[in-house]
Amino acid sequence: MSGFELRLAALEEFEALRHMLDVANEYAAARSPEPQWMLMDRVYAQLRKGIEANQCYVMTGEDNVPVASVTITEADLYTWGDMGNDGRALYFHKLMKDPSLAPPKVTPRLLKFVAQQAIASGKEFVRADTKTNQENLIAYYKKFGMVEQGERPYVKSSYRAVLLQIPARQLLTNCEAAFST
């Protein structure tokens, strides 16, 4: 994957990442009953907050153009409730790519990075959540070994979230295996 760099996002990249989020959302909407992200003003604010808190990572390609991104947090009380602050996991959010710019197998590369960060931080698990109606995305995460941990309502929303979890070392192994196929 020469020519691509994964690093912390800079606030100056917010507009490019906001555009990528819109592109990724349109891509998901074409494959699911509705877009992955709703209430976009809130999602944009969360993206900006992740950049400002040094939680958002960006993969860049030629000319330093963002091609993919993921936000990683140490807690997620918003969706996971008390379990979201048990100190045992890292959480990934807003994993996205620009399908026209991202390299092949970019998602396993981002998930591998999340697993590496979890292991380096002494965390046992990697966790994620998505809306219950995002069946394709849920199935995709399950291909990497993520297991459903139940459902919870999203705060301030009529949507429900599927909670997904995997041991960090297992995710790392599964992502490495994805590169050999």
Please describe the topology of this protein.
Blueprint: E1 5-8, H1 14-29, H2 40-52, E2 56-60, E3 66-73, H3 77-80, E4 89-97, H4 106-120, E5 125-131, H5 135-143, E6 147-153, E7 160-167, H6 168-179
Parallel strand pairs: 4-5
Antiparallel strand pairs: 1-2, 2-3, 3-4, 5-7, 6-7
Helix pairs in contact: 4-6
CATH topology: Aminopeptidase
Span from first to last CA?
15 Å
Uncertain runs are none
What is the helical fraction, as a range of percent? 25-40%
- List the strand order in the largest sheet: 1-2-3-4-5-7-6
CATH homology superfamily name: Gcn5-related N-acetyltransferase (GNAT)
Main attributes?
seven-stranded mixed beta sheet; globular; alpha+beta; 181 residues
Description of the molecule:
The protein has a single domain, classed as Gcn5-related N-acetyltransferase (GNAT) (Aminopeptidase, 3-Layer(aba) Sandwich). 38% of the residues lie in helices and 27% in strands. The protein has helices at residues 14-29, 40-52, 77-80, 106-120, 135-143, 168-179, and strands at 5-8, 56-60, 66-73, 89-97, 125-131, 147-153, 160-167. Strands 1-2-3-4-5-7-6 form a seven-stranded mixed beta sheet. Helix 4 packs antiparallel against helix 6. The longest helix has 16 residues, at 14-29. It starts with a strand and ends with a helix. The relative contact order is 0.15.
Compact overview of the structure:
The chain is built from six helices and seven strands. By secondary structure, the protein is α+β, with helices and mostly antiparallel strands. 36% of the residues are buried.
